[in-house]
Design brief:
The structure is a single chain. This protein has about 230 residues and is an all-alpha fold. The protein has 14 helices and no strands. It has a domain of about 70 residues. It is about 70% helix and about 0% strand. The longest helix has 20 residues. The chain is globular and about 60 Å long. It comes from Pipra filicauda. InterPro entries: ARM-like, ARM-type_fold, HEAT_Maestro, Maestro_heat-like_prot. This is Maestro heat-like repeat family member 5.
């Protein structure tokens, strides 16, 4: 079954998820809890499926899994759920309203599990533009991981998702002084094609971000980057 989630057709993957969902609902919570932790990693790639129904189902299933864990599994699940935060952040910009709604609800479930009051508050008040900064403030040590998670979304078919990725990467580059030259090069290489993106919002923001990163003062005086970027991102 797990193999199908990796290489099966979209239809087959949906059938497997529905079957797993039914099984988990019938198990005692102690048994379902262990399985839930194992499943999270299998769900993450499905968030970016071309099939909107599969995106929504996998995201809704994640939210359900987060509520199943008990005891020691809660600690393990907290580690796993961090890997889902950036994908969920971007899927909140999905052009399919039901997928965006499911992503918001899954982030709320993650906030509950992580006991993250600020994230929960922002989601409940729908202050969505502050979520990226909230993630960075909570765990600045994960900035490098956030970059690597974000880069593939610069090639997402949806302009809204690409824009969200550029914006989040822009926020992360405020911490450029803690990044290596190789990281800067990776970001520039990924952003450069978006300067010619067909969506003007994406191309404009990508151009501003790359311009700031190429600035000599960024390499010599990282604090100058912070001031410059504050003009581009709230």
């Amino acid at each position: 079954m797990m193999k199908i989630l990796q290489v099966g057709s979209e239809d087959a993957k949906m059938k497997i998820l529905l079957a797993l969902q039914n099984v988990l609902r019938q198990l005692k919570k102690s048994k379902a809890s262990f399985i839930a932790v194992q499943l999270v990693g299998r769900l993450l790639p499905l968030f970016d499926s071309e099939c909107s129904e599969l995106r929504e189902l996998s995201i809704r299933m994640l939210a359900e899994l987060l509520q199943l864990v008990v005891g020691r599994d809660e600690k393990r699940m907290r580690k796993e759920v961090w890997r889902a935060l950036v994908p969920l952040l971007f899927r909140m910009s999905d052009q399919v309203p039901s997928v965006a709604k499911a992503s918001r609800e899954a982030l709320l479930a993650a906030a509950e599990l992580l006991k993250w009051k600020t994230l929960k508050h922002l989601l409940q008040r729908e202050r969505l533009w502050e979520l990226g900064a909230c993630l960075l403030q909570k765990s600045r040590s994960r900035a490098e991981d956030f970059i690597h998670q974000s880069l593939p979304y610069l090639q997402d078919p949806q302009a809204n998702v690409r824009l969200a990725a550029v914006r989040f990467i822009g926020l992360i580059t405020r911490r450029l002084r803690e990044q290596t030259t190789d990281s800067q090069a990776d970001i520039l290489s990924a952003l450069q094609p978006l300067e010619n993106d067909w969506d003007i919002s994406v191309s404009s923001l990508a151009a501003r971000t790359t311009s700031i990163l190429r600035s000599p003062c960024v390499q010599q005086r990282p604090r100058g980057l912070l001031r410059a970027l504050r003009c581009c991102w709230p």
